[in-house]
Design goal:
Strand order of the largest sheet: 1-2-3
Structural class: mainly alpha
Number of domains: 2
Number of strands: 3
Shape: flat
Radius of gyration: 19 Å
Number of helices: 8
Order of helices and strands: HHEEHHEHHHH
Oligomer: single chain
């Protein structure tokens, strides 16, 4: 078995243990044992980094095939949320994040390396555009997860089910964090689009037009959501719906056509 497969499988095992650890006591009055969960999550992240390094590096190129990008995105999101978990209660987000990251690491062992998109590392403008776009996507996915958490806490408070939210952070704290994260992600997304239009050719070419249009629509929706919150007081279900719509469009822009090219049109 190759080193990349060994590290990916080890990451899967550690993620699985972390997921089981958090789920087994998710609704316990005292909450889950976050220390044990984060220990196994940290081990998983270390092996995830090792496997991603092996999968991404292709001679002097960066191998940005779809499976590698998804693995990288899940790694960034997992690392960020695990770091946040050291200070804030994000127990509701951890099972889904760890579970997905673990399953994707397992799938990386069996995915055939076809349809690779290699990017030369000395193309500064392209790398800046892609890096900002990836960072924006990761931040905005985290914002969507936070929106789910806000909606869940809000629903339980309205139904006066206080036991269900006893182990979760205060609603106002999570909501405040949500809009800070959403603002950061929206700015990164806007900057990535500006860099693309200024420094890259083909942003509105036939091949990339749908990506650009969908990304811009998503960007408009994100900023409209922020404007609606700060100016009109939007919150709760409306913010969740708009955030999910924008994130779906962004996912479609980033991964939709590449999934078709790399897996369906072989």
């Amino acid at each position: 078995m190759e080193f990349s497969s060994i590290t990916a499988f080890t990451a899967f095992v550690c993620y699985s243990v972390a997921t089981i650890s958090i789920l087994s006591r998710l609704f316990h009055p005292k909450g889950p044992n976050i220390i044990i969960t984060l220990i196994f999550a940290s081990l998983a992240i270390i092996f995830h980094v090792l496997s991603s390094t092996q999968f991404l590096n292709s001679h002097n190129h960066l191998n940005f095939s779809l499976p590698n990008v998804v693995s990288l995105v899940s790694l960034i999101i997992t690392l960020v949320i695990s770091t946040v978990a050291l200070r804030f209660k994000v127990n509701l987000l951890l099972p889904g994040i760890y579970g997905f990251a673990g399953l994707w690491q397992l799938s990386m062992i069996f995915i055939s390396p076809v349809g690779n998109l290699e990017i030369v590392s000395d193309k500064v403008a392209m790398l800046s555009h892609i890096t900002l776009a990836l960072i924006a996507y990761c931040i905005l996915v985290i914002a969507s997860l936070y929106a789910f958490q806000v909606a869940y806490i809000n629903q339980k408070l309205k139904s006066k089910n206080f036991q269900a939210v006893h182990h979760l952070p205060p609603l106002m704290q999570v909501e405040q964090q949500l809009f800070v994260i959403l603002l950061m992600g929206s700015i990164c997304l806007l900057l990535s689009q500006i860099i693309g239009f200024i420094f890259l050719d083909g942003m509105i070419s036939k091949e990339n037009a749908h990506k650009t249009v969908l990304s811009l629509i998503a960007c408009v929706i994100y900023f409209a959501t922020l404007w609606g919150h700060f100016k009109l007081g939007w919150r709760g279900q409306r913010v969740l719906t708009l955030t999910l719509i924008a994130t779906f469009l962004l996912t479609l822009a980033y991964f939709g056509s590449r999934f078709v090219k790399e897996f369906l049109l072989l």
